[in-house]
Amino acid sequence: MTIPGTGFLVSNEDSCLPCTPEEERRIISELNKAAESNLKEGNVYYVLSNRWWMMWQRYVEQDEKDSSIVEQFTSSNFPIGSQSKITYRPGQIDNSDIVLDGADSEGEEPVLRRPLQEGDDYVLVPQDVWKKLFEWYKGGPALPRKMISQGSSHKNFSVEVYPLCLHLIDSRKNDQSVIQISKTASVHDLYNYICKQYNLDQEKVRIWDYFQKKKHALLNNFDQTFDEAQLQMDQDILLEVEKDGFWPSGFGMDSTGNELALVAIEPVRSPVSIAGGPNLSNGYSSTRYGPSLMQGSILSSSLRDSESEYDLLSNSSTKGDGGLTGLVNLGNTCFMNSALQCLVHTPPLVKYFLKDYSREINRENPLGLQGELAIAFGELLRQMWSSEKASIAPRTFKMKLARFASQFSGYNQHDSQELLAFLLDGLHEDLNRVKRKPYIEAKDSNGRPDEEYAEECWANHKARNDSIIVDVCQGQYKSTLVCPVCDKVSVTFDPFMYLSLPLPSTVTRAMTITVIFSDGSKLPMPFTVTVQKNGFWKDLIQALSVACCLESDESLLIAEVCDHKIYRYVDNPFELLSEVKDDEQFVAYRHPRNLANLRRLEVIHRSKERLTTELQTRVVQPKFLGNPLVTFLPEGPLTPAVIQSVVRTVLNPLLRQKGADRAYNLANLVGENGFSSQGRIDEKMMSNGDACSSLNNDESANMELEASSDEDFSLQLSVTDERILDEIPLAESSFNESDQVVRVLMDWSPREHHLYDVHYLKDFPVIFKPGHQMKRTRSEAISLFSCLEAFLKEEPLGPDDMWYCPSCKEHRQASKKLDLWRLPDILVFHLKRFSYSRYMKNKLDTLVNFPIHNLDLSKYVKQKEAESHVYELYAVSNHYGGLGGGHYTAYAKLLKENKWYHFDDSYVSASSEDSVRTSAAYVLFYQRVKSNKVVEMDEQHSADSGSG
Q1: Rounded CA gap, 365 and 373, in Å?
Q2: Diameter of the chain by CA atoms?
Q3: Distances 118 to 47, 90, 144, 408, 414 between C-alpha atoms, Å
Q4: Buried-most residue among 99, 203, 319, 728 (CB within 10 A)?
Q5: Model confidence at 425, in pLDDT bands (50, 70, 90)?
Q6: The dihedral of CA 111, 113, 116, 122: what is its sign?
Q7: Where is the USP domain (predicted)?
Q8: Quick count: other Cβ atoms within 10 Å of Cβ 613?
Q9: Alpha-carbon torsion 589, 594, 597, 598, what sign?
Q10: If you write DSSP's letter for every residue of 729-751 in order, what string do you get?
Q11: Which positions are catalytic?
């Protein structure tokens, strides 16, 4: 039976759809390519729910180039499931999961939830793609967004998913409203918007930067952008309206109760200056501080610089001490604060930026940021070590960062390691002592000794790159590639700024799937199997087949269950397991292989709860429950009686039975998040009495019913479509031979509950239970050395990283081996806790046992240099929680005090050394422990430099 609106596609020939799946994929692909070739400011994109987008992608990709491989597996003895190509067309576009409930009521524009992650929660599609999808599917709501251009020297296009949200405080009524306006708008646009909204005369209006409920600057430069005005997401602005020639008072009081001056005040300068150079403010320099050492080279500080203008409350009642200054969270900027705290507590950088480094600022480097990033970072570091503030708001630095790195310009959470990589590289280029980089042709080793070739590569690197960052943060590793065909060996020596170490426990993954017998012979049973994390569904199905002792004439049909209904079937054995989230639920329907071509019957369960209203009338409230059952219909005419019989058969294991049988069945069902791969529990482990008491069902405790005792009993069944929109009583249904799937609703009334125990269909485990994962990772800590060994281990290149062999003249999947050759004074380890795939992101909270003292890497370094290979930990960037709602903090050690401190945005607190090593550690900072001879040489060099 083909029910209108079913959304179920049997064959393209019989379909009245506008396009086939492959045609839809081709059209959307062409529209995407056309949009990508014409990127420009002002282009319109639409925000689309990632959940709906994934449904559409799976629908249109079901017949792509791997289909021949799929057919090979489904036609063989491999237990992959149904051989019929059954695919589902998604329903209407549904963005309800990414917008606030009721946001579009009364004609209001729908509001996006916050925070949402692109790729996880939503995707962006060009306007033409949206129009075509809407033509095919309808739905919504529509969420258009414009493309903007960000950055100064390095322009980048991005879609403004979240406009700038400002909280306007009206001084006349002291009330607050929310303004949403593009980040690319100007102060003049802001005035126009507010005056229009409140019907005000612009001549009698002034707006203040009211960050943290304090007046910082009058927004009177109409040409300024919001970035230049340092307006942050969700911050306050203050509206004042002149009345009878007077401006309002009472806002922005100082500590004595006096109103703050209505003009910008010169900020308190850091006591540590660079040779008394001029102060640069908003592009012009004041000469009151003396002559400039280099035009525009001094640290810039806005006249209203929030990093030095005011104190903020913290957990300490006293002023901050040197190096103990917190950083205010400006809106999801904890990632930035964590990275900055680690860098500003790096001893060589502290020593460098507290001195006069103006002569090394490179404004001519096309790869740099005109020196502005180094100036902004240096000023921030100096303020944090000035012992003036308990915490400061790094708004000026955030503004500079947004100008030069638009990927960090928004207000979403970002990655502290990615920011560290950008800062180290940007600081290097801004401070590169090489003004004109020479061209150096890369040469092969040609069989030369490693020592000679490595030194040549390092000298060539230093000829183009020479800065404080290279001096203290860059090392060198040896990379060896071997061709798998001709055994050609290629050796290169490359510089590194940090080492990204994989966690060995990320290689495999435990996944739990419940197996349901489609013939109704046994109760459902969960199985947990271990598979390669980057494997395919064929690997999981093979492991699951072994675990559940699948017979050679049986198959497994895998389905994803969502909201008590089948969301999709897994028909592609080469679908990546990395795209499966831990909180998703999959079941495997076990059935004889020879039934796979028969029509499929889906049984969806629903209870009808009786509610009593004020009028004492009974209302039936339907509610879906349990997990659906899937079985196969016999050949021949399909009648209501046949469906009744098949459903009774598949429900047979749920019949309430005698105590001993029920105890055995219960023992095979319960368990936290699945069983071992054997999945067997001896029925002797549970006594009959214990089993009966554990069921705790007063209604049926003493009942012993058999199927034969209710032969005349008819189940309450109705036929429905896949979206559960329409239902037809079973007795009134008619069926066509072309129907490949029949879906029925089974309503569980007290009589059905009396005969069957529906509890066996409830509470199936998800793929992986987070609580169970946390317990495992605490007991299965791994060492930093095992992570380093995994990084240095020889392995083949990925299929997307093929190497061109100069001997074969072909791209080959070569094997790659890394070795440490030269280590820097500051060694940074990045623990790769996050994994990314096409459909999802994951984080691993495994505890890495890293040394705090005496990290000896001697055995891993191939070059036998005189330098020490022993390191001490001095800072850690931490990440807590998940990807969407996580939080970053930092630990840092003040070496002079030999004490550890915890930096959590504005809050700084003393910490013990034992508390530093946690499963949240994400980026580790080590400093080389120099030998006494090296220390004496460094001190002599410093003395000589000072006397000169």
Answers
A1: 13
A2: 107
A3: 9, 21, 15, 14, 12
A4: 99
A5: very high
A6: negative
A7: 325-929
A8: 8
A9: negative
A10: EGGG----TT--EEEEEEEE-HH
A11: 334, 887
**Two structure tokens written together for 496:** 């590194």
- Indicate left, alpha or beta for 151 from its phi (over 0: left) and psi (-120 to 50: alpha): left
Q: Which residues of 494-511 are buried (b: 16+ CB within 10 A; e: fewer)?
A: ebbbbbebbbbbbeebbb
Residue 909 CA, chain-centre distance (Å), reads 29
Q: How far, rounded to the nearest angstrom, does the alpha carbon of residue 313 sit from its chain's CA centroid?
A: 32
Bridge partners for 662 per DSSP: none
Check: CB of residue 61 under 8 Å from CB of residue 25: yes
Q: Tell me the pLDDT tens digit for each residue of 799-836.
A: 667 788 888 888 887 888 899 999 999 999 999 988 76
- Closest to 865 in 3D by CA, of 460, 470, 454: 454
Tokens of 238: 């203050």
Structure tokens at 299: 């640290």
- As a whole number of angstroms, the distance between CA 269 and CA 84 comes to 75
Q: For 551, phi and psi rounded to 5 degrees?
A: -80, 160
**Residue found under tokens 């008491």:** 693
Residues 430, 372: Cα–Cα separation, whole Å? 8
Residue type, 684: K
Distance CA 547, CA 563 (A): 27
Can you name the residues that pair with 621 across neighbouring β-strands? Answer: 609
Separation CA 178–CA 157 (nearest Å): 26
Handedness of CA 628, 632, 638, 643 (dihedral sign): negative
Assign 328 to helix, strand or coil.
coil
HEC letters along 408-434: HCCCCCCCHHHHHHHHHHHHHHHCCCC
> CA 521 to CA 715: how far, in whole Å?
19
Q: What is the pLDDT of residues 537-548, one digit of tens each?
A: 888 998 999 999
Helix (H, G, I), strand (E, B) or coil at 641: helix
Counted residue by residue, the chain has a size of 948
Q: Residue 138, Cα to own-chain centre: how many angstroms?
A: 29
In tens, the pLDDT along 467-517 reads: 999 999 999 999 888 888 888 888 889 999 999 998 876 567 889 999 999
Q: Residue 317 is encoded by which pair of tokens?
A: 């009642």
- To 5 degrees, how large is the angle CA 895–CA 898–CA 901? 90
